[in-house]
C-alpha cells in the first residue's frame, strides 16, 4: 500500500461532511470553514479521483452513486481514525487534568470568583478553563465538562439542568447623579443599554410599562460587556441575575425593580457519559452543585429598596461570589464575549 497516494485528509473530511449532510453550506458550518472552501476541496478531490462525486444543478447538489459508495468507505475509515485517537488519548491523558469550557460572561462573573475554592479542595488536579460562546466537540476539542446556556438538546451527552435565570434592570448607583429611574416615564428618559440576548419589551410588559423596545443607543453583543457598561455609568441595563448578583452585592450595580422576567435559556452541566464517571469530573460536579446551592440560597436577598449592613454584606458577598468587599471587589472585572449562545 502506497500511503503517499492518499487524498488530502481535509478534502476527505469536507467530502464526508457534505455527503452526510447533503449540503456544502451545512458542511462548511460543521467544519468552521467557508462554503467556497468546501466547494474547492471537493472539486480538487474529484479531479484527483477522476470521478464526479456530486451532481450540481445551480445552487443545488446531489451525491452521485459513485460518491455515495465512496462516502460510506471514507466515513468508516475516518471513524477508525477517530476511535484510534480516542483510545490513544484515553491511555495517555493524565487523570489530573480537568478541562472546562463555558461562556466568557459566566466564566468572568460567576465561575472565576469561585473556582479558587475548588482548586484549594483538589490541589492534585490541573484545571484548565476555556471560554467560548460556540458549540464544542468533546472529542475534537479535548474537553471534559461544558457549562452552557441553551435548551438542553444535545443528544448523546450527559445533560443536567443546574440553574435557571431571570432578567431585571440595574445600573450604577451613581447613574444620573444618583437619581435612579423607577417609573415608566423615568425609564423612558433614561439611556437604556441594549443587547440581542436581553430585549427590554418582555420586562416592560411584566412591569406594566407601555414602552416600546429601544431602537437607539449602543448595542452590546455579550452580557458581560453589557453589565460592565452599566457599572461604569453608561446607562441602565437589563441584566441576568446569575451574572449581576456579585456586582449588586458589591455595590457596583443597583437593582431597580423587584419585577423580573424569565430567561428562555437554562444553564446545563454537559459532558460525555463516560467522562462523567471519572474521579476528576465527579469531584468538580460535587463542588459545582454545592456552589450553586449556596448561590440559590442568597441570590434574591438584594431586593429594592433594602440595603444590608456592612457586616451582613461582607458575609453574603463572600458566600455568594467568593469576593471580599474592599479586597477583591475590583470594579474592572474581566470582560469577554459571552452572549447567551447555546451550548
TrEMBL record:
It comes from the Bacteria. The keyword DNA-binding applies. Keywords: DNA-binding, Transcription, Transcription regulation. Residues 324-343 are annotated as: Disordered. One of its GO terms (molecular function) is sequence-specific DNA binding. Residues 7-64 form the HTH lysR-type domain. Gene3D superfamilies: Periplasmic binding protein-like II (3.40.190.10), Winged helix-like DNA-binding domain superfamily/Winged helix DNA-binding domain (1.10.10.10). PROSITE patterns: HTH_LYSR. InterPro entries: LysR-type_TF_proteobact-type, LysR_HTH_N, LysR_subst-bd, WH-like_DNA-bd_sf, WH_DNA-bd_sf. One of its GO terms (biological process) is DNA-templated transcription. Residues 333-343 have a biased composition (Basic and acidic residues). Belongs to the LysR transcriptional regulatory family. This is Glycine cleavage system transcriptional activator. The gene is gcvA_1.
